[in-house]
Amino acid sequence: xxxxxxxxxxxxxxxxFPGALxxxxxxxxxxxxxxxxxxxxxxxxxxxxxxxxxxCRRTSAGLxxxxxxxxxxxxxIRIDSVREALAFGAGKPYEAARRVAIISRAELLGVEAxxxxxxxxxxxxxxxxxxxxxxxxxTLLPTVRSRCVAVAVAPDSRGDRVASWLxxxxxxxxxxxxxxxxxxxxxxxxxxxxxxRARRASVLAALTAGVSERRIAPLLLLAEALAREDPVxxxxxxxxxxxxxxxxxxxxxxxxxxxxxxxILELARRIAPEALQRAALKAADAPPxxxxxxxxxxxxxxxxxxFGF
Length: 309
Known about the structure:
Elements: H1 3-12, E1 20-24, H2 28-43, H3 54-60, E2 67-70, H4 79-90, E3 99-103, H5 111-122, E4 128-134, H6 142-145, E5 149-152, H7 158-167, H8 172-181, H9 189-212, H10 217-228, H11 231-234, H12 236-249, H13 261-270, H14 273-284, H15 295-306
Parallel strand pairs: 1-4, 1-5, 2-3, 3-4
Helix pairs in contact: 1-2, 2-3, 4-5, 7-8, 8-9, 9-10, 9-13, 10-15, 12-13, 12-14, 14-15
């Protein structure tokens, strides 16, 4: 049975849903959407297959009283959050026949928090279900993984995402960028695009200052800003450097960020393609969080090495 078919079977039969489910895959956003979809199936009193009822909409928005969402606070999921979830799971449901707790980015569970979960993952009770999501299953404690039913969630293809945005009336340029950004259901897509383009402009401005004016301060400020960004936004640096490498070695028509092709071509004219390639690869390999390396120093190294400071 494929992973998709397995998830559909789980969603269609809440009474046989595992006590602890671990969703894995490359897209955290896709995992979180799938976790909420499954939670809606578990909590819906009418089994609405379209999930358009009031109960399903509240679950998707994270507002159902029998749903608890655990997310990282800073660089980890703290023991206090897990204790809150344990108390939540021990209580009786308010509206639904069961309760659900979703742990997003479970790889950020602290050791103490993860150990506190072990018993309840194995025996959560008849009216309670855990759904864990992670893009880095290999970093979870083996004792956590072994107590969960693991299912890999494949991301939607980029072509499918672009087609979906086009069908909703967005331009080709907007649809292409939204397909990469993958906003959640509650996001304001227009505002997200504006923020994304503003970030891109600031990255290009710092790179331009570094290459044309030999100014180091904008590069250091950019490294600090990237260290605070989530991976979706931080990858802008590697994408723009890769575009410049492509434009330098081949053609500007092949770049991903065509809306700023002029600025990318200017970088390509001033920096050797080999240097751009190395910098793009290094920028893409940033540590996922500060527990695994200093993100600011990583980006500083990328930028200062690229411009020979």
